[in-house]
């Protein structure tokens, strides 16, 4: 993973939300569907982090 993206675990740590909650927000449309690495792991960009900070 490049440094331009962070994992769901890192996003959870930064926001204090659980990974389950982040996946739920994506499923409900609060977060847009995010890019996936070749192995299927979610890759959050800085704009995703900023959007989540705005929503919270």
Can you tell me about this structure?
By secondary structure, the chain is mostly helical. It has one domain (8-55): Multidrug-efflux Transporter Regulator, Chain: A, Domain 2, CATH 1.10.1660. It is built from three helices and two strands, in the order ααββα. The protein has helices at 8-15, 19-28, 46-55; strands at 35-36, 42-43. A hairpin with a 5-residue loop joins β1 (35-36) and β2. The model has no long low-confidence stretch (mean pLDDT 91).
Brief summary of the model shown:
The protein has helices spanning 8-15, 19-28, 46-55; strands at 35-36, 42-43. With 56 residues, it is mostly helical.
Structure characteristics:
56 residues; mainly alpha; Multidrug-efflux Transporter Regulator, Chain: A, Domain 2; two-stranded antiparallel ribbon; 2 strands; 50% helix
